[in-house]
Design brief:
By secondary structure, this protein is an alpha+beta fold. The chain is 21% helix and 33% strand. The protein binds adenosine-5'-triphosphate (ATP). Pfam families: ABC_tran.
Length: 388
């Protein structure tokens, strides 16, 4: 990105509604042709961010740039973007074919080309059989597909997709998702893809921007968000099942770092890493992904330490059981920790057990963890200090 204006982005954008900041100084840039997922829970400001790009929401302050062009003061019609809304507005008295084509006809494309493009797109999205029907004669999911089609047929510079898969059933979602990704990639269009579903976001994104309370928490590749979350909020939001959290104290003995958890000690088997030096003797929160929490009877890793725990929940998924256990440790109060656990229950970890294991809520078990697999967070601010 040599040109400082290139790409499609918001620069220091603030949006105020009813006296509340719904976007707070948001700076977020998608490179040309990038598929950027905007991820966040309900009310985090995702739709507002798209509406600002589309020109449907005024900014309080800041700049909006589309394909290197400052469009902050331009009306929606002059921004060359195509938007799919969560509930798409179809024209009731036009059949699907005309609904898909009217945007192109408005651009004065020749009729034969409009028909050709509509036909191709309908085939790609597998909605050819719906072309003669009117919106009233479609299911919610089918209307959703037509809404997606209406945006995708346009070949704009920038696609704005707001929960495009919301109306579709679970079985159809992965297929349509792949089709959308295929289409926007083959057109080379920059795409903002809004979702509250982290698994969906990770699956399609070049990069993910995680939004919380109107502010950008972290921007990175799916892998960066999973492996190097900037704080407890990001760590808890990204990944299934949610990351497990353990309160601990960082100690240093004979120059070697370790974490104490209750009456157990988890040695790191190395000197205190420089980013942790200021935290020796202080409380931290350890974050452990389910794949790093083991059934100690299944094998013997000499670096692991067994912790006593009580089974809270068992979810059978076919390939394995996802087991939530409570470890005898006090609840965690750090900022952002609420997304990955229930505060009232104390520290919880998740682990994968074999599908045939007989394990029931209330059972006493031990789980094996090791310090070198743990993400380390500040116990007060929730900021990440160290990643495995
Ligand atoms: N017209 C409005 N007037 C006042 N506040 C609004 C208006 N529209 C949205 N908001 C508020 O702005 C915040 C962000 O809303 P937005 O729709 O951008 O969130 P979102 O992340 O897209 O949520 P969802 O996933 O539920 O659609 C919310 O707190 C919402 O209540």
């Amino acid at each position: 990105m040599g040109d400082p204006m290139s790409g499609t982005w918001l620069k220091n954008v603030t949006v105020i509604r009813d006296g509340r900041q719904v976007l707070r100084d948001v700076t977020l840039r998608a490179a040309d042709g990038e598929l950027l997922v905007v991820l966040g829970s309900s009310g985090s400001g995702k739709s507002t961010l798209l509406r600002v790009l589309a020109g449907l929401n005024q900014v309080g302050s800041g700049t909006v740039i589309i394909n290197g062009r400052d469009v902050t003061k331009l009306p929606p019609g002059e921004r060359r973007v195509a938007m799919v809304f969560e509930t798409s507005a179809l024209i009731p008295f036009l059949d699907v074919s005309r609904n898909l084509g009217w945007g192109l006809r408005a651009q004065r494309l020749p009729d034969t080309e409009v028909k050709e493009r509509v036909k191709d797109l309908a085939r790609q999205l597998r909605l050819s059989r719906l072309l003669p029907r009117r919106p009233d004669d479609l299911s919610t999911g089918e209307r959703g597909l037509v809404g997606i089609g209406h945006a995708l047929v346009q070949r704009p510079d920038v696609f704005l997709l707001d929960e495009p898969l919301a109306g579709l059933d679970a079985a159809e979602r992965p297929r349509v998702r792949q089709e959308i990704v295929h289409i926007v990639r083959s057109l080379g269009a920059t795409t903002f893809f809004v979702t509250h579903d982290q698994a969906e976001g990770l699956a399609v994104a070049d990069r993910v921007a995680l939004l919380h309370d109107g502010a950008v928490v972290q921007v990175g590749t799916p892998r960066e968000l999973y492996e190097r979350p900037v704080d407890l909020f990001a760590a808890g939001f990204v990944g299934t099942p949610p990351i497990g959290l353990l309160p601990a104290r960082l100690v240093s003995a004979g120059g070697q770092a370790a974490f104490t958890v209750g009456n157990r000690t988890l040695p790191l088997w190395r000197a205190v890493p420089p980013p942790l030096r200021d935290h020796v003797g202080r409380e931290v929160v350890l974050g452990l992904r389910a794949e790093d929490v083991h059934d100690p009877t299944a094998g013997n890793d000499p670096d692991s330490v067994a912790l006593a725990a009580v089974v809270r929940e068992v979810e059978y998924t076919g390939r394995r059981n996802v087991v939530t256990v409570a470890v005898g440790a006090p609840p965690i109060t750090a900022r952002g920790s609420e997304v990955s656990g229930d505060k009232s229950r104390g520290a919880t970890l998740r682990s994968f057990f074999p599908p045939r294991s007989v394990i029931r809520p209330g059972a006493a078990v031990t789980v094996a963890v090791k310090a070198s697999s743990a993400h380390v967070f500040d116990a007060v601010t929730g900021r990440a200090l160290w990643h495995p």
